[in-house]
Amino acid sequence: MAGRDLNAQAARLAKRLESIPDAVLEAVRPAVVQSAEDLANTARSLAPEAEGDLKASIVVTPPGAQSPAYAEGGGRRIAGENQALVTVGNPEQRHGHLVEFGTKPHVNGGQFAGTEHPGTTAQPFLLPAARLTDARARRRIGRAIGRAVRQIAQGGGHD
Predict the structure, then answer these.
(1) Cα separations (Å) of 140 from 39, 60, 61?
(2) Burial level of 58, CB count in 10 A (0-12/13-18/19+)?
(3) Would residue 114 count as lying in a domain?
(4) Contact at 8 Å (CB) between 45 and 52?
(5) CA atoms 124, 48, 112, 71: torsion sign
(6) What's the short name of a Pfam family annotated to this entry (predicted)?
(7) Model-level pTM?
(8) 51 φ, ψ to 5°?
């Protein structure tokens, strides 16, 4: 009889252990999204006012969703199961990187071909926002992981 109980306990434990990654991932997603929202809000507060709708172009893409066109890297990207992306840019606002990092003096092309552009001073907003929110995000996500693991260990996990 004791052997059956041990086998049943081992089977239940194995099932719990298998469920940890999915259950933890599910439990952590809200913390990941909240941390991304904090980052986006901080970046909006740091973005220069004189840059039109740049602030409005700072958006959060939740897990599994697609980022807007013209966001970082020039294209769309699907956020992974455990990611929330904070991007800057849309079809109307494609200059976030120029504001963040500035530009060097250069000769213009296009409509103003041949004229000299003096360059622009960097006005960082996204990287400072990431630095300001990083520790809080790590703590929030760590707490969510800890809660999920404890809940599963106590038998309250997802089946």
Answers:
(1) 13, 17, 18
(2) buried
(3) no
(4) no
(5) positive
(6) HK97-gp10_like
(7) 0.80
(8) -105, 35
In degrees rounded to 5, what are phi and psi of residue 18? Answer: -65, -35
Phi-psi region of 52 (alpha: psi -120 to 50; beta: other; left: phi over 0): left
Domain encompassing residue 56: 20-101+120-153
State residue 81 phi and psi, 5-degree precision: -60, -30
Domains: count for the chain: 1
Query: Hunting for tokens 């041949």 — which residue is that?
Result: 114
Please, what are the averages of pLDDT over each run of 10 residues along the chain (159 residues)? 66 70 86 97 93 86 89 74 89 88 94 95 97 97 92 68
Residue 137 DSSP SS3: helix
Is 109 inside any structural domain?
no
Phi, psi of 14 (to 5 degrees): -60, -40
Give the N- to C-terminal CA distance of the chain in Å, as an integer: 26
What amino acid is encoded at 53 in this protein?
A: D
Q: 159 in a domain, yes or no? A: no
